[in-house]
Amino acid sequence: MNLRNINRLFFNFKIEVEMKVTDKAVFETSKGKIVIGLYGDDMPVTVKNFIKYTEAGFYNKLIFHRVIPGFVIQGGGMLKAMLEKNAIADPIKLEINPEIKHTKYTLSMARTQDPNSATSQFFICTGECPSLDNNYAAFGTVLEGMEVVDDIAKVPTHTVKWYDDVPIEPIVIENAYLMNE
Fold first, then answer.
1. Is pLDDT at 5 greater than 80 in this prediction?
2. CA proximity to 138, closest of 10, 37, 62, 60
3. Which of 117, 145, 134 shows the shortest CA–CA distance to 28?
4. What confidence tens digit (pLDDT) does each residue in 17-36 have?
């Protein structure tokens, strides 16, 4: 084997790291059910925050308010008619695990320009989003309901008030809860 082939083997080798799912959450949406695995050991602050909101029933009746095909579907902060629901806890500090990448179906925290401003809002990647790596707190993955995520990503959107990419027909999280195994 010559040096060129060794370099090709070395640089084309990808290390796939599988994160351990410690908890599971369910979103029963108006489009179907999504089951999410949470990485509690690898992202403890972020997962604890998400669980707090889920157990409080915070996500029930909220909508996916931002849909960008090939990028993300975002929810966790808006009621129908784009009315913001106030957070129930202080913002958390940005937590990064460089081994968790923003690949398709990754769950991550949404935030403002301030890296330490995440509260309740989250997004699910609908494509590969490497620009978000090491900038947003990826903390879980969709285990079941990928087709639901894909269906949500295809809905027609419009602008409401100053919000772009809002589904014309609201996609409601009817019920969110932790799954007991």
1. no
2. 37
3. 145
4. 578 999 999 999 999 999 99
